[in-house]
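Researcher: Structure for this, please.
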Amino acid sequence: MRKPNWIVIGILIGVSLFISYVFFVAAIGAFFPSINQISRPLLCNGEYNIETTRYSPRPGETVWSNNIYCDDKDITFPSVMLTGLIISLVIFVILAFRSREHLLHSGDFGALAKDIQQTKRSGGKTTLERMAELKELRDKNLISQVEYERKKDEIMKEL
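Model: Predicted structure, token format:
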């Protein structure tokens, strides 16, 4: 059974939240406040208004302010946050679909992990290096044929 790759999933969640809040809610929502209509069914059952106010705090400077009201109650912050979460969910689904091969660890992930553990136990040497070293010890008569066979069997069992 393949296990979820939580690192990739966490990165996708972070990217989708960033994209939704920075680009959609802040940038697009400032110019097109009607994007916040996405959260209307979840927040308001009554009269829904988006009020845009334009004013000049200093000469030559113009500021736009958007406020969202439901039954004359200001719901700007919850509406913007909920819109961002909904857009984030959509972006996450799109990103997850596009990177679906990375969302789960490969089927032989456990075997790969065991191989890494065996490499650590053997002092960082691969099986081939250990077998070559063992053969060299036997060829130089530093170990007997029986010891060679026993150690070779141990190395082969670790595979």
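Researcher: Any notable elements?
Model: The chain has two domains: 6-102, 109-157. Residues 6-102 form one domain.
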